[in-house]
Amino acid sequence: DYASSAQVPDASREVIHLVRVADNNTFLLTEQGKSYLDSIADFQVHVVSVVGVSRSGKSFFLNNLLGIDHEKGFPTLTGADPYTNGLWIYEQARSRDNSGRTV
After folding, report:
1. How many whole angstroms from its chain centre is CA 85?
2. Which residues of 11-49 are buried (b: 16+ CB within 10 A; e: fewer)?
3. pLDDT of residue 2
4. What digits encode the pLDDT tens for the residues 68-99?
5. Which of 31, 24, 27, 25 minimizes the C-alpha distance to 6?
6. Contact predicate 102/44, CB 8 Å
7. Tell me, what DSSP letter sits at residue 3?
8. pLDDT tens digits, residue range 40-52?
9. Can you tell me the distance from the alpha carbon of 57 to that of 25, in angstroms, rounded to the nearest whole number?
10. Residue 93 contacts residue 18 (beta carbons within 8 Å)
11. Alpha-carbon distance 5 to 8, whole Å?
12. pTM over 0.70
């Protein structure tokens, strides 16, 4: 059963909330995440991950790495409450590698 996400970013963003943490500390695949995973089943995927303690600048770092601001990328907020709880991904435009495969 898939979780709905109360923190799904605006549709104009390319950030996808893939997995959320439930109240009982279990992980739930969001409906948006399931749809996205279904849509990329036939594509080669490249992963960059960042892990760290709460409020340590992970989203800020990834936005800078991707060359985007928080309006289009991972949301960043001031204060003590975490926003990007769970697993979030940034979908970059798909392109073709040298062999013609879509990545």
Report:
1. 10
2. eebebbbbbbeeeeeeebbbebbeeeeeeeeeeeeeeee
3. 40
4. 877 778 877 777 766 667 888 887 655 667 78
5. 31
6. yes
7. B
8. 888 777 788 888 8
9. 22
10. no
11. 6
12. no
